[in-house]
Amino acid sequence: MSDNSSYTIEEVSQLLRVSKLTVYDLIKKGDLPAYRVGRQMRVDHDDIEKYKSKNKTGARNERNPPKEQGQTARQTSQIIISGQDIALDMLSKHVENHTSFSTLRLYNGSLNSLMSMYNGECDVVSVHLYDGETGEYNTPYVKRILVSQPFIQMNLVQRQAGIYVQKGNPHQINSMKDLSKVNIKMVNREIGSGARILLDEQLKKQGIRPQSLNGYDNILTSHYSVASAVAGGQADVGIGIENVTKMVNVDFIPLIMEQYDLIILKENEKLVEAIKETVKSKEYQTQLKQFYGYDLSLSGKIIFDS
């Protein structure tokens, strides 16, 4: 009898006793069928059982059964796009609608996405990693991590990054220096996120020890949740991007215009061309223009070609 239960990626990783990235890799390779429900991936119970049965020692390999006469293989390839901005959800849909690729979404921060690409677990990743030594975005980090893998770095959008404060800015916070005020409580992002790296680099410039800040170890995992914590009074400040302020009732102190770039390995030439065409398409850019806070003046520009 069929079981119509379904599981999240985390639940599948627990059932199979492997990491979540291993589960994503199985999905990417087509070994484990999955589908989207909103922003979440789901796997059916029956498909997990079929995967387990198929990979038992001595089991017949049915992954590539012989084709019937006249049958043709489906000309699609599955890719994983990693990053947290809604612009990537839109990119994913456009790629599926206008190319031969089908897409899965992974919602990791910049540095973790980049490490997933290094480990062969992602095909397209987004990054917004500020390098305090050079003043550049992204390229220094990507060159260090993908040291032996040629890649394309393409701008998707530019976004204003800065400090969320409560309405009316009651604590008179105007710069990074003000985060060290005794009566200020902050909320932070997770290690590996672009916002966390921007914060750490800016604190380093100001000579402020991160651990001296009240709330530095209070972690949330999205711009929206950080802004909501500030709006709700759980914190006085947080670091994030400006466009969230259209959804959450906070004020915003701008710090820097950040580059939000896409990284694609050059080994997949067809994918590189598909992403280029999508990002530069009038349809995609028109949709991006409907959202507050995106600067499209560099969209589609190749920032680095290794």
Question: Would you spell out the secondary-structure blueprint of this structure?
Answer:
Elements: E1 6-8, H1 9-16, H2 20-29, E2 35-37, E3 40-44, H3 45-54, E4 77-82, H4 86-98, E5 101-106, H5 110-118, E6 124-127, H6 139-145, E7 151-165, E8 186-189, H7 194-206, E9 219-220, H8 223-231, E10 237-241, E11 251-265, H9 269-280, H10 282-288, E12 294-295, E13 302-305
Parallel strand pairs: 4-5, 4-6, 8-9, 8-10
Antiparallel strand pairs: 1-3, 2-3, 6-11, 7-10, 7-11, 7-12, 7-13
Helix pairs in contact: 1-2, 4-9
Protein name: Molybdopterin biosynthesis protein
Domain Helix-turn-helix: 7-55
Region (Disordered): 46-76
Low-pLDDT parts are: 59-74
Q: Count the helices. How many?
A: 10
Biggest sheet statistics: 10 strands, mixed
Span between N and C termini?
A: 53 Å
Structural class of the helix and strand makeup? alpha/beta
Tally of domains: 3
Q: Helix and strand string, N-terminal first?
A: EHHEEHEHEHEHEEHEHEEHHEE
CATH homologous superfamily label of the largest domain: Periplasmic binding protein-like II
Q: Please state the CA-atom Rg, rounded to the nearest Å.
A: 22 Å
CATH topology of the largest domain: D-Maltodextrin-Binding Protein, domain 2
Q: Which word captures the global form? A: globular
- The count of β-strands is 13
Task: Give the overall pLDDT as a whole number.
Answer: 89
- CATH class designation of the largest domain: Alpha Beta
Annotated CATH architecture of the largest domain: 3-Layer(aba) Sandwich
- Strand coverage percent: 15-25%
Percent helix, as a range, is: 25-40%
